[in-house]
Specification:
Largest sheet of chain B: 4 strands, antiparallel
Oligomer: heterodimer
Mean pLDDT of chain A: 82
Radius of gyration of chain B: 16 Å
CATH superfamily of the largest domain in chain A: P-loop containing nucleotide triphosphate hydrolases
Strand order of the largest sheet of chain A: 1-2-3-5-4
Largest sheet of chain A: 5 strands, mixed, barrel
Strand content of chain B: 15-25%
Shape of chain A: globular
Structural class of chain B: alpha+beta
Order of helices and strands of chain A: EEEHHEEEEEHEHEHEHEEHHH
Helix content of chain A: 10-25%
CATH topology of the largest domain in chain A: Rossmann fold
Low-confidence stretches of chain A: 53-58
Strand order of the largest sheet of chain B: 3-4-5-6
Number of domains of chain B: 1
Largest interface: A-B, 23 and 19 residues
CATH architecture of the largest domain in chain A: 3-Layer(aba) Sandwich
Number of domains of chain A: 3
Number of strands of chain B: 6
Helix content of chain B: 25-40%
Chain lengths: 328, 159
């Protein structure tokens, strides 16, 4: 049994299989989380909606990690490089999604906390871009009140740049910053470095889009493992990065690399107020015939539908909105 | 211009099409290909009313207009069959959106009401010049009075 020699606070920068690496002022400490604190965090007793603890639900504890990368925590230091997390300090913000558990209860999976910006990454080609997934990341970031910076990788694979220019234009028009980069040719790297400087950024995207490759060129020397996308007609990315980790950048700031996410459900987002997370729709909310009750789908005299018909709102974004309303 | 990326996005958004209730006559319409003879049922077989759901191309389901589209005229699809005459092509139904005026041309289905098709044809002979020119500008050649026999043959067989 460990004897703790002191306490302190630090930030969680890596986690893997129940072990949390915490960066403190003096050194990095490999911490664990006590079972008691874990249960308290997953089943908060103050929450009246908490279910009674049942034996089968204990299994779910293994699937849900209550600590996120970027969390500021209080720790007890054992002095030998190990420690125990005793408390999580209040979070400034968090990026969450519903955890994929087998049980009936859906748990929140906090991907990162206390970040400054979300960087949804998608490849211009190989694997083919999924714009609906990008919209989900953007909506999640809006719901967390985090600014987004869209990063389109592998632009060197494009033979016709007009393919991606239309996408870039449509997102820039609604106020998102978009960077087109290539880890191979170095195109756009300086610009994205400037945008990452001095901030804590979280890279999100599906497998194989080049999140880790981008990180390897932004911060040389990391030597993180990367793989080619699978060959054949599917051309899907392989799950190469398997854990979350925060890397400090020489140019100041930090980047959190995440494993690829093929699905990204919205957590705790009221579908009735989903429109407020679409910046281009925000100024039209309440201007429909049915006011705030309008679902912008079948209702007559809907201001948002009119804006789509007039070309002010992208029909793709509008359809993404409808799809998220049905499948949040 | 629609790019490969945007076309792929459409597929992600709309994976299937199902049965529907007609906006005009409120009949339940099955999308079963066995009943309609077509794989993409896009209008009511009873009143021939359609709905403005497509924006760039058939089946993309990107339009936010969603108003009903009334059948305004009939046309003939030009055939590429080497030994048939141009006028022997398939009868197509011309729809116009009642809100935004968009015009689309659709295949008729096996179970479309022949009576309604004839009614649409009769009405199209008296289309006002503005509507007519709007359709003609789209490069659609409407069936005219001389095509009546041809239409009867196609709808009811040789008589």
């Amino acid at each position: 049994m460990n004897t703790f020699i002191g306490s302190g606070q630090g930030v969680v920068f890596r986690k893997n299989l129940g072990h949390y690496s915490v960066h403190t002022e003096r050194r990095d400490i490999d911490c664990v989380l006590s079972s008691r604190l874990r249960k308290q965090l997953i089943y908060p007793t103050a929450d009246p909606s908490s279910l009674r603890h049942r034996v089968q639900q204990v299994r779910e504890i293994d699937h849900v990690d209550p600590i996120a990368i970027g969390d500021w925590v209080l720790i007890m230091d054992a002095g030998d490089g190990s420690g125990m997390i005793t408390e999580i300090l209040p979070r400034r913000n968090k990026l969450s999604r519903p955890a994929t558990t087998t049980g009936q209860r859906v748990f929140e999976q906090v991907i990162v906390s206390n970040a400054d910006q979300v960087v949804p990454v998608f490849a211009a080609a190989s694997p083919p871009p999924k714009l609906h997934l990008l919209d989900r990341y953007l909506v999640s970031a809006e719901a967390s009140e985090l600014p987004s910076l869209i990063c389109i990788t592998k632009v060197d694979l494009l033979t016709d740049r007009s393919e991606i220019d239309e996408v870039v234009d449509s997102y820039q028009r609604i106020g998102y910053r978009v960077h087109c980069v290539s880890s191979v040719t170095g195109e756009g790297l300086e610009e994205i470095k400037m945008s990452l400087q001095g901030r804590i950024s979280v890279l999100v995207g599906k497998s194989g889009v080049g999140k880790t490759s981008l990180l390897n060129v932004i911060q040389p020397g990391l030597g993180l493992r990367v793989k080619e996308v699978s060959q054949g007609h599917l051309g899907k990315g392989l799950h190469t990065t398997t854990h979350l980790e925060m890397f400090t950048l020489d140019i100041s700031g930090a980047v959190i690399d995440t494993p690829g996410m093929r699905e990204f459900g919205l957590w705790d987002s009221d579908t009735a107020s989903l429109d407020q997370f679409f910046p281009e729709m925000r100024h039209l909310i309440g201007k429909c015939k049915f006011g705030l009750d309008c679902r912008h789908d079948e209702e007559p005299d809907c201001a948002i539908r009119k804006a789509v018909v007039n070309g002010e709102i992208s029909p793709y974004r509008y359809q993404s909105y409808l799809k998220m309303r049905v499948l949040p | 211009m629609k790019t490969h990326i945007l076309r792929s996005h459409e597929r992600q958004l709309h994976s299937s099409f199902g049965d529907f209730v007609c906006m005009n006559c409120r009949n339940f319409i099955s999308a079963e290909a066995v009943l309609s003879g077509v794989h993409h049922r896009n209008h009511c077989p009873y009143c021939l009313t359609s709905r403005h759901l497509d924006l760039y191309k058939a089946g993309d389901r990107l339009s936010a207009c969603k108003a009903s589209m009334r059948p305004v005229a009939l046309t003939i699809k030009r055939t590429i069959k080497k030994y048939s005459s141009e006028r022997m092509g398939e009868i197509m139904l011309v729809h116009q959106c009642i809100e935004c005026g968009k015009i689309s041309v659709n295949r008729i289905a096996t179970d479309d009401s022949s009576k309604m098709l004839l009614t649409v044809y009769e009405a199209s002979l008296n289309l006002d010049s503005m509507e007519n020119s709007m359709i003609v500008q789209k490069g659609i050649a409407l069936l005219v009075a001389d095509d009546r026999h041809q239409l009867n043959v196609q709808l009811f067989g040789r008589c």
